[in-house]
Design brief:
Largest sheet: 8 strands, mixed
Family: Belongs to the NAD-dependent glycerol-3-phosphate dehydrogenase family.
InterPro entries: 6-PGluconate_DH-like_C_sf, 6PGD_dom2, G3P_DH_NAD-dep, G3P_DH_NAD-dep_C, G3P_DH_NAD-dep_N, NAD(P)-bd_dom_sf
Strand order of the largest sheet: 3-2-1-4-5-6-7-8
CATH class of the largest domain: Alpha Beta
Keywords: Cytoplasm, Lipid biosynthesis, Lipid metabolism, NAD, NADP, Nucleotide-binding, Oxidoreductase, Phospholipid biosynthesis, Phospholipid metabolism
CATH architecture of the largest domain: 3-Layer(aba) Sandwich
CATH topology of the largest domain: Rossmann fold
Order of helices and strands: EHEHEHEHEHEHEHEHHHHHHHH
CATH superfamily of the largest domain: NAD(P)-binding Rossmann-like Domain
Structural class: alpha/beta
Radius of gyration: 21 Å
Bound molecules: nicotinamide-adenine-dinucleotide, SN-glycerol-3-phosphate
Pfam family, one: NAD_Gly3P_dh_C
Shape: globular
Number of domains: 2
Strand content: 5-15%
Distance between the termini: 62 Å
Protein name: Glycerol-3-phosphate dehydrogenase [NAD(P)+]
Length: 357
Amino acid sequence: MSSQPAQPSAVGARELPANITVLGSGSWGTTFAKVIADAAVERGDHDLAVMLWARRDDVAAAINERHVNPEYLDEIDLPESIRATTDLKAAVEGAEVIVLAVPAQHVREQLHALKDALGEDTVIVSLVKGLERGTDERISEICASELDLDPENFAVVSGPNLAMEIARREPTATVVASASEQTAAKIAKLTNCSYFRPYRNTDVTGVEIGGVVKNVIALAVGLCDGRGFGDNSKASIITRGLAETTRLAAALGARQETMAGLAGLGDLVATCASPLSRNRTAGRFMGEGYRADELSSVMRQTAEGVKSVSAVVELAHRMRVEMPISEAMNAVVSGALDVESLATLLLARDLKSEASS
Ligand SMILES: NC(=O)c1ccc[n+]([C@@H]2O[C@H](COP(=O)([O-])OP(=O)(O)OC[C@H]3O[C@@H](n4cnc5c(N)ncnc54)[C@H](O)[C@@H]3O)[C@@H](O)[C@H]2O)c1
Ligand SMILES: O=P(O)(O)OC[C@H](O)CO
């Protein structure tokens, strides 16, 4: 037996990364930073630093000075180990893990701005549940095209994860998916704490598609609320919504069982059931008569389904997949269909066997 001390591993003496940056200090970005900070404390890691990039000076100042984010997470005390800055380059300098928590339509410009500061082995983690309009690309595809990122250095975290519930430490599970089992395991360990349980998966496409399309289906469920329809209508939309999500995911090469898991059915149920959901709320406002371009007057936060629905439908056309609920929602969002006509259109197609789709 050798008496030599164990050599540090290739990633250094630490098993897990110590420098994490979260881009976007909205509800989920701030909450996810808190999850990482709480997880570090629970495993006795007191050296881990979490940097939050904020767009606004007042948000960064509130996080640094008062350890709160009153704009997005009122009443929640943040760990003091979370620091914030509005300087993007400084935020990503030396980061081993960069977490994307900005709306999907702004991911590419963010990546473009940080490209030169990125380390060779930096892992990018997406929390984003949207498709880019114009290209119909998922965030993993944008990372590959914009950063030439090795897919093994990409992970997506998605599941029934309403930010406010997690910020209040209410228990939830999620999925961390990466083409690399090792990367998924690393991000799972980094985020695992007493109230947040990540499951690993290698089906990146399935996990991304589940998160994107559930937002569109939640708009439709919200419309039912706005029109005064009850639970039969909503359960029908949720169930048929899962069927069309699964068709699209399968056409893109994802695994069907991913859609039956936390990032598919789990997230769909949470979003469609919760009054906290911005997508369901956006749908309710539209059901009450607001146009999509009027939503910003009644809602401050991102409802990704409104922004992504046209890209979902374009992608479905390209893949020759039938998505009648998404089609109907796209027509409402674009103003081509009024909500009074929607009820019949949402579920109206040629009669067929349930098993055939
Ligand atoms: N809130 C949740 O419960 C939740 C849970 C899981 C996933 N998500 C997903 O996470 C992503 C972020 O959501 P969120 O809830 O944190 O959104 P949010 O609306 O609360 O915050 C968005 C953040 O992005 C920033 N931002 C807005 N426009 C920007 C731009 N042009 N450039 C750069 N930054 C910009 C805002 O300043 C803010 O910090 C979305 O894709 C959402 O679907 C949200
Ligand atoms: O508030 P929503 O509708 O953006 O949904 C938040 C999360 O995605 C739920 O998992």
